[in-house]
Amino acid sequence: MKAIRKIVIVSILAIALVFSFTFVALATNGQNNQSFEDATHDITEKGFTRFDGTGRYDTMKKIVEEECLYPSSPDGKPCVLARGDDYPDALAATAFAGLFDGAIVLTPSEGSTLPDKTIEDIKKIGPSDIWVPGGSIAGNLIQQAIDLTGATYHPPMAGSGRTATSLKIYETAN
Predict the structure, then answer these.
(1) Taking Cα atoms as reference points, which of 121, 145, 134 lies closest to residue 92?
(2) 157-172 core/surface letters (b: 16 or more CB in 10 A; e: else)
(3) Are 111 and 141 in contact (CB under 8 A)?
(4) Do 137 and 65 form a contact (C-beta atoms < 8 A)?
(5) DSSP 93
(6) Taking the complete model, does pTM exceed 0.70, yes or no?
(7) In the chain, how long is the greatest CA-to-CA distance?
(8) What is the distance in angstroms between the CA of the first residue and the CA of the last residue of the chain?
(9) What pLDDT does residue 42 have?
(10) pLDDT for the residue numbered 98
């Protein structure tokens, strides 16, 4: 029951943080002409770390480089392999990844090979397990991630839509 509460609370906080950060930054800019950089600086002074890159994959790489303590773990940590071209599955899996102290790694849903940045991050994490929210990532990309690390692959946490997928992720965590 504690795990359920933790997932629900972390999910709500993650969503609230995303929306409140956007609102605070936009509202601050509109009311007193404070720059976006100043608004984000105010937030970082309160203990938050802001990661930004030239795109979502570059930002992911910076997060893994800064926050990744995983290589020191002999057993590895879970890795959530989520679509980088459509955010809902990755967003729904944030609490799941946090619950298991894992990382979210972004990948396109199709293609013949994983992007270089994704490969680098998967190797750096050295995951013990690979989870896929939504199930819409091509099987060859998932297999490539497994082959890179020898991680245990778990069936996709997928539902018939965004809400059902979120529920499946929640059920998997229990």
Answers:
(1) 134
(2) bbbeeeeebbebbbee
(3) yes
(4) no
(5) T
(6) no
(7) 53
(8) 9
(9) 63
(10) 83
